[in-house]
């Protein structure tokens, strides 16, 4: 259900999302039933209104969850280990993406997770053109989309599984801060929190990403540890020995 609603919400038909055409069709049939242009009259009208309200509720329900279902589980025990800058881990990502001055929410995009030498994390995904009958994916959305975040912007990392349609994979839900720049005369710069879901085809890939993210936390904790205090020089008086400076002595006759 979630996968179908996502594609109906994203695909365009004659310049409008397919879901808008379904809304209009339900309202039209309901109005025709009320004026007895179709059989059933008030029964037809009531059924169309129920379907219309239910369709809106389902859309809002799944849209607020990026059309996926995440179930949190206890995280596995992994040893913090950074990824090499050349490593790319295959993932399916869902969440808030940006490219240049554009931003959009996408679900289950195929791509890769990387960490650069600067320790900046990157989710790199490709939106491919899709078409079903007369409906098609918006041309403005086709191309590469990204999620970038530094370790200092990460607020939480949760482990679990994510389901999208019939697909279920192990997943990491990474909550991080995003700086939204000022875009317009009356807008202002602001910081928001977003959660990107990284689903991996294998448990091993999920552990590799988790170990890489935990490496930053481990390094931060090590840097925050207080340094070992300097030990004071041993006091010879405690061992029964006292040194008296030569110049402070005088001869007794």
Number of strands: 12
CATH class label of the largest domain: Mainly Beta
**Multimer state:** single chain
Contiguous runs where pLDDT drops below 50 for at least 5 residues: none
Q: Residue share in helices? A: 25-40%
**Shape annotation:** elongated
Per CATH, the architecture of the largest domain is Roll
Nearest-integer average pLDDT: 85
Brief overview:
This protein is 28% helix and 34% strand.
Task: Please describe what this structure looks like.
Keywords: Membrane, Transmembrane, Transmembrane helix. Residues 220-253 are annotated as: Disordered. The chain crosses the membrane at residues 12-35, 41-58. By secondary structure, this protein is an alpha+beta fold. The protein folds into two domains: 1-64, no CATH class; 69-224, PH-domain like, CATH 2.30.29. Helix content is 28%, strand content 34%. It is built from four helices and twelve strands. The chain has helices at 2-10, 18-34, 42-63, 203-224; strands spanning 12-13, 16-17, 69-72, 89-99, 102-115, 121-127, 131-132, 135-136, 143-149, 154-164, 167-180, 190-200. β10 and β11 form a beta hairpin. α1 packs across α3 and α2 packs antiparallel against α3 (42-63). The longest helix has 22 residues, at 42-63. The protein is elongated and about 80 Å long.
Identify the notable features of this structure and list them briefly.
PH-domain like; 253 residues; single chain; eight-stranded antiparallel β-sheet; alpha+beta; two-stranded antiparallel ribbon
Helix-strand blueprint:
Layout lengths: L1 H9 L1 E2 L2 E2 H17 L7 H22 L5 E4 L16 E11 L2 E14 L5 E7 L3 E2 L2 E2 L6 E7 L4 E11 L2 E14 L9 E11 L2 H22 L29
Helix pairs in contact: 1-3, 2-3
Keywords: Membrane, Transmembrane, Transmembrane helix
């Amino acid at each position: 259900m979630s996968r179908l609603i996502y594609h109906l919400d994203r695909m365009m038909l004659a310049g409008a999302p397919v879901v808008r055409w379904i809304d209009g069709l339900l309202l039209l049939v309901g109005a025709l039933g009320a004026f007895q242009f179709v059989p059933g009259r008030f029964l037809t009208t009531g059924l169309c209104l129920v379907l219309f309200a239910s369709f809106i509720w389902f859309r809002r329900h799944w849209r607020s969850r990026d059309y996926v279902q995440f179930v949190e589980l206890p995280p596995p025990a992994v040893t913090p280990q950074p990824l090499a800058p050349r490593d790319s881990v295959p993932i399916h990502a869902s969440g808030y993406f940006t490219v240049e001055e554009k931003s959009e929410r996408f679900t289950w995009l195929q791509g890769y997770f990387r960490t650069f030498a600067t320790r900046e994390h990157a989710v790199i995904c490709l939106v491919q053109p899709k078409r079903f009958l007369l409906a098609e994916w918006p041309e403005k959305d086709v191309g590469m989309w990204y999620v970038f975040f530094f370790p200092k912007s990460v607020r939480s990392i949760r482990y679990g599984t994510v389901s999208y349609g019939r697909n279920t994979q192990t997943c990491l839900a990474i909550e991080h801060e995003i700086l939204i720049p000022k875009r317009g005369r009356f807008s202002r710069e602001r910081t928001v929190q977003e959660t990107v879901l990284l689903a991996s085809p294998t448990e091993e890939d999920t552990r590799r990403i988790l170990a890489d993210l935990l490496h930053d936390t481990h390094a931060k904790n090590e840097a925050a540890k207080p340094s070992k205090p300097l030990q004071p020089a041993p006091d010879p008086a405690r061992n029964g020995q006292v040194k008296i400076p030569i110049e402070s002595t005088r001869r007794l006759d």
